[in-house]
Amino acid sequence: MYLNKKVVVVLPAYNAAKTLETTYKEIPFDIVDEVVLVDDASKDDTVEVGKKIGIQHVIRHEKNKGYGGNQKTCYKKALDIGADIVVMLHPDYQYTPKLITAMVSIIGQDLYPVVFGSRILGKGALKGGMPMYKYIANRFLTFSQNVLMNQKLSEYHTGYRAFSRKVLETIDLSKNSDDFVFDNQMIAQIFYHNFDIAEVTCPTKYFDEASSINFSRSVKYGLGVLKVSFLYFLTKAGIYNWKVLK
Ligand SMILES: Nc1nc2c(ncn2[C@@H]2O[C@H](COP(=O)(O)OP(=O)(O)O)[C@@H](O)[C@H]2O)c(=O)[nH]1
Ligand SMILES: [Mg+2]
Prior knowledge:
With 246 residues, the protein is an alpha/beta fold. It has helices at residues 17-25, 46-52, 67-80, 100-108, 124-127, 132-149, 165-170, 182-192, 215-236; strands spanning 7-13, 34-39, 57-60, 85-88, 114-118, 161-164, 197-201.
């Protein structure tokens, strides 16, 4: 609990057996109440590891739904078990769980309803080994998105995010893609409903288990996020009515 608010960490997992325990052990259980692991039909023993280390809620998709589909299950479960603050953390140990305390405190003190762990604030990304093409793409996409959405985030692509219950109850995640672009649609919905997003600097690590997305999937993702920002721009300008935002 943090200031009487229930804190739930959700772990959207796909083939995370090797890194799950290390990630889980670093979660600050002095403030985190419960953990939800959603396994998206992994080919390894993610579920067995999750149960062995004592994660309270382990859910398995029988069929692979994708990263967005996985998160839909995560947030639904977190709200069902009464979360007031939800932190989404990748179980691939790319982002340190030690930052959860800082992120939760920003929401818990009612400063901001959403907090992102940013790899781009500061110099963490390249130092942590982010491939140069991903870094350049991130910077280019972020610049374009800030212009189109009239916002000022340091990046739109981090996998480390915390939300207040109110935000998750306000936006309609069921309309979003089941693929990676889900994350970006969620940001567009958050801004559309006039919630602000805070950012904290987050160290990041790139190693084999922490990064599996290849070049062609990255390109598909890049085009997808530009489309999201463009539809957001058109909807805000009253030229188009993008139902996902509403
Ligand atoms: N549910 C689901 N998650 C996936 C799939 N492929 C990758 N992921 C997850 O998506 C997240 C981001 O992928 P990752 O390879 O770490 O990308 P990177 O860290 O941005 O290079 C990780 O938490 C992966 O476990 C998939 O097919 N289904
Ligand atoms: Mg990763």
